[in-house]
Amino acid sequence: MGLHERTTLDMTDTDAATRPYAPFGLDADPASSGLVPVTVDTELGPLRVHRSAIRTGSTATLLLHGAAGSWTTWTPLLAAARAAGEPLTDVVAIDLPGWGDSPGPRIRSRLTLDSLADVVWRAVTQLGYTRADITGHSLGAFIALHLAAIRPAYVTAVRLVSATTFSVLASIEHPVRSFSAVPGFTLLLGVFRLLRMGGDRGARLVRAVRHAGLLRVAVSPLFRHTLRVPRSVVNALADEVRPDSFVRAAEATRGYDPQRRWTSIRCAGWAVRGDADSFVPSRDLTGLLRTIPLATLTEIGDCGHFAHVERPRETLEALGLATSRRPLGTKNEAAAR
């Protein structure tokens, strides 16, 4: 069946009561996830990558984190896959430039969406892979879509967790006019602009919030149950607050036309969002069908912006990375929003 012959809309509300919330913390030890760290030289500087110790094929399982994270944000998902007896193989988990252990480019103007995609792809090919099955979260999901659009012959699948797409793009272009689309993101971007201007003072403010024990309050918009999120997750978010990198990444999307760019995507697609995600409205999820008509869309119940941390097992199933162990009922009202 051809890519544009039918539309699949599978908006499901998983039963959250039978599985624990945020069952795994973040694990900064790559060996625990069966990964080894390597550094790849790129035009934007050294790129830190954590890869599977053994390469079993030519297609990488490429993991791209969001704008407040690093490769460790994927360790709950990797742990859930191992616990289910379906471990992910050929993993390539990247610290994007400016996050984790990958420094940002010294020349700010060199950070563009195309340059980000190029350095990510260089890491994939340098590690001996010719194709990629990409899972991305938030900003990482946006980069995954861009890679699938510019390298359609080499991207075999895109699996998106709370992809920041149409509403976030509108907010970046017109923050006042589009404020109501994603007010949380618009405010966060404004705060990060101020923190970036503050330089070291901005960094000290973040540390002060942490030392005052207010981190959980600060990150509460990101999660459905902030008090139940493991401490390692909250601490990692504080460590990865990179106002300059965040603002640069946002600016790199100015003028981007997803309707035009993403029509070249030819691979299969899966996309999920939490039903309490304040950064990705339901209309953005269903809007993906305009550019990826055969995408499988899932709304995960009792979950916020970090489905791969809050509901890792459900996320694996919804992204087609694990066998579903329960029937999922259709949530028809989501399609009408």
TrEMBL record:
Pfam families (alphabetical): Abhydrolase_6
Naturally occurring in which organism (per UniProt): Agreia bicolorata
Lineage: Bacteria, Bacillati, Actinomycetota, Actinomycetes, Micrococcales
InterPro entries for this protein: AB_hydrolase_1, AB_hydrolase_fold, Epox_hydrolase-like
Superkingdom of this protein's organism: Bacteria
Stretches assigned to the AB hydrolase-1 domain: 62-317
Protein name listed in UniProt: Pimeloyl-ACP methyl ester carboxylesterase
Coiled coil: none
GO function terms (MF aspect): catalytic activity
